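One-letter codes give the sequence; the integers encode the fold. A sample entry reads:
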Amino acid sequence: MKMMVYGTLKRDYWNNRLLAGATYLGEAFTEKRYIMYGEGVPYIVPDEGGLPVRGEVFEIDPDIHLGPIGRLEGHPHGYTRTVIKARLLS
């Protein structure tokens, strides 16, 4: 399963440890536009007046990675995982 992350789950940030064992596939941009809010915990909201979000894509094992990331993010009450389209940068 591919997962795009932004914020503290990206490489070189403290929560990236939760992606240990995942395969980094590269940087990407979302196809849709979002507004990012970042007071304390970054989050994005779809908005045509916003911009594509730049993040990193990993190939993850859902059985290993989704539980710890979900606990960190407060899924499904804090964050909600969403299927999106993103384009990997070459």
Summary: Strands lie at 2-5, 23-30, 34-37, 43-46, 54-59, 86-88. Residues 62-73 form the longest helix (12 residues). The CA atoms of residues 11 and 35 lie 22 Å apart.
